[in-house]
Amino acid sequence: MREQFKTLFADPFSGGHKARLNEVQIAAVTSSLVPNFKYGFIMGMDKLSFPGKLKPAEIFTLKEENELAEKTNDTYPLTGKKLQKEFLSSFAVSARSVSQALQFSYAQNSLDGTGQMASKLFGKADVIIDLSDENFTLDSFKLPFQVSHPEKDTPAGWKKEFFDNNPKPLSPKLARKLYLNGAEAYVTSYSAINVYAKNPYEFFLKYGLHLRKKTKRELSNADIGTYTHTSLETSINNFNEGNDLAITLKNVLSASDSSNHDSKHNEEILQLLVSSDKNKWIQQRLNDIFKEYLYNMQQWQSDQSELTTKNLGAELGFGDSDSYENDALVLSLDDEHNTDIHLSGMIDRYDLVEINDQNFVNVVDYKTGKSTDKVRNLDIKMDNGLELQLAIYAWALQELKQDIEAKAGVSDLKTGALTYSGVNNKSTDTPLYKGIISNELDDALANISDREAHGYSKKENEFIQDDIEAVVSNAKDQIKKIFTEVLDGNISMTPFQIGSETGLKYNDYAEIMNFSEELGNYYNVIEGDDSNG
Fold first, then answer.
1. Mean pLDDT in the chain?
2. pLDDT at 212
3. Res 51 pLDDT > 70
4. Contact of 371 with 416, CB cutoff 8 Å
5. 249 with 277: CB under 8 angstroms?
6. Under a CB-based contact definition with an 8 Å cutoff, are residues 510 and 504 in contact?
7. 404 has a pLDDT exceeding 90
8. Paired residues of 188 in beta bridges
9. Contact 79, 65 (CB under 8 A)
10. pLDDT tens digits for range 369-394
C-alpha cells in the first residue's frame, strides 16, 4: 500500500517540488505516533469534514466514544464539545509531525463507509497549507495549537511526542578508552580525518566500534585503484632507471607484488583480474587507460623549452610502522587532552620542476575517479576539515625537505603544486593536474605560453592559489579541532552538505544510521558552489 501511495502521490507532488517522494508513512489522522515528515496528506474528506467543522456526533461511533472515555478516565462517554476538543487535540498532535506543508484533498466519502470515490489529491492538491510560514496557525480549523516549522519556535515539549534519532555523546572518559585504550598517541590517517569531517557518527562506527560491512570477495573499485597505483609506481621507477616508454610498459604489465602500495593485496588482485572473462576485460581496459596516461605524462615532460620536470620518486611514505620509510607527522593537542596525533600517509608521486632558476617540488595524487570532483569547493572544504589530503602532503614536504633536496641535488627547494591527476578515460582533460598551487609557482607559470602542454589545468576553478604555509597551518588547526572533539566524545550524526553533495554518499552505515530529517536529524550545511562543472 505504501508503494501504491508513493506512486499515486509522485506526479501531482512533483509538479511544484524539485524533490520526489521517497518514503510514505500511513497513519490515522488522530495518531500521535506519526514520525516527523516534511509533508502531510490528509485524505478521504469533503469540504465540510475538516477537523473543527464536523459535528461531534459525526466524529466517532458510540463504541469509539466509550474507548476514548476509558483512555481519558471519564466515567461517561465523551459527548458534545468535550468530544470535539478531544478529536481536535489528537489531530493537532498529528499535524505537528509535518514540518513543511499539509495537503488536504476533497472526496465524496460518506461517513458510513459507502459511496467512496478516489480523492482528488491524485489529480490535484486542492488545499496546500505552508507550515514553514511562521505566522501560520490552525485557527481556521478551530485547533488550540499553533503549528510552526520545527526549526522555528514550537510548543514546549513537542519533540517528546516523537522518536529521537540523534545519538547521545560519549563521556570523555569513555571516548579515551574507546579510541586510545591506554596509548599516549592516536595513530591515524587522512582517510580517517576525512570520515570525521564528513560525518562524526560514521567515524564513531568505523574507527570507534570498528564495524565493517560483510562483503563477498570480488573485484572492487578499491582493487582497481590499487592495481592502477601499483602500475604507476612501477612506471616511475622504470623511468628513473632510464628505460624508455616501450620497455617501461613491458615491465609494468608483467610486474606483480613489487609495489609499496598495498603490497599485501597485489597478488590477490592480480588473481582476481584473471578469474573471469569480465575481469580480464576490465584488466585490458585498465591497461589501455594506463598506457594513455603514461603517454600523456611523457609528452608533458618532453617539452623542456620553458620548464623542466623530472620524476623524483613514487610512494613516498610517512608513518609509525616499518612499512614507511619516514617518521609520522606529529601534532600535539592542548594540555587538557594531553595526546599526540600521529599521522601516516603515502604520496603517490613527487616531481622536481625547474623554472626561471627556481626549484619546486610538486606532488601528484592519482585518482581513478573523476578528479574534478575532488577540487570542487576545495578551499571551502579545507576550511571545514574536509579534503585535507593535499594540505597534509604539503606538511609532509616541509618535514622531508632536506631529504628531498638531497635526492634532487638542489637547494632552496620550494613547494610548488599539490595536485590530483585522473587516471581514466572520462575526458581528455582528466589527467591534467588540478588542486593547490603556491603563489610562487603560479607567478612563475604566468610566462609559460601553454600550461596544459606541461600538464597543468588552465581552468581557474580547478586550482587554488595560496600561501602553502597558510594551507598547512589551517590543516593542523582543523586536525586539532577534529581530534579534540573525538576525545570529548562527539558522535553527532551531522553529515556535511554543500549544495547537492553530502557526507552520506559512499558510506556503508546507512541502515545503521537511519538518517532522516523527518526524524529530527539535520545536515551541517556549508555554503558552496553546487555546479557540476
1. 76
2. 87
3. no
4. no
5. no
6. yes
7. yes
8. 343
9. yes
10. 778 888 999 999 999 999 999 999 99
Strand-pairing partners, residue 314, are: 349
Which of 108 and 70 is assigned the larger pLDDT?
70
| Angular region, 388: left φ>0, alpha ψ -120 to 50, beta rest | alpha
The pLDDT score that the predictor gives to residue 190 is: 95
> CA-CA distance, 319 to 37, in Å (whole number)?
47
Question: Who contacts 375 (Cβ-Cβ below 8 Å, separation ≥6)?
Answer: 420, 434, 435, 461, 462, 463, 464
pLDDT tens per residue across span 249-260: 677 666 544 445
What is the per-residue burial (b if ≥16 Cβ within 10 Å, else e) of 371-394?
Answer: bbebbbbbeebbebbbbbbbbbbb
> Average pLDDT, stretch 437-456?
91
Work out the average pLDDT over 43-62. 51
Q: Using CA atoms, how far apart are residues 46 and 55, in angstroms rounded to an integer?
A: 14
How many whole angstroms from its chain centre is CA 200?
A: 11
CB 398 within 8 A of CB 472: yes
Cell numbers placing 305 = 623549452
Positions of E strands within 379-479: 414-422, 434-438, 463-466
Q: Which three cell numbers stand for residue 101?
A: 506543508
Nearest-5° Cα angle at 60, 58 to 64: 160
The 8-class DSSP code of residue 328 comes to: P
What CA–CA distance (Å, rounded) separates 472 from 389? Answer: 11
Q: What is the DSSP string of 338-371?
A: --EEEEEEEEEEEEEEEETTEEEEEEEEEESS-H
pLDDT at 64 over 80: no
Q: How far apart are CA 121 and CA 39, in angstroms?
A: 13
For residue 103, what is the enclosing H or E element?
Answer: strand 98-106
Q: DSSP assignment, residue 104?
A: E
Q: What value does the CA radius of gyration of the chain take, rounded to a whole number of Å?
A: 31
Question: What's the pLDDT at 360?
Answer: 96
Residue 55 cell numbers, joined: 459535528
The DSSP code for 158 is: G
Is beta strand 434-438 parallel, antiparallel or unpaired with respect to 463-466? parallel
Residue 282 φ then ψ, to 5° = -60, -45
Q: How many helices (H) and strands (E) does the chain have?
A: 17, 14
Identity at 450, one-letter amino acid code: D
Query: CB–CB of 234/259 below 8 Å?
Result: yes
Query: Are the beta carbons of 113 and 3 closer than 8 angstroms?
Result: no
- pTM score, two decimals? 0.67
Count of CB atoms within 10 A of residue 101's CB?
Answer: 19
User: Is the per-residue pLDDT at 521 higher than 70?
Assistant: yes
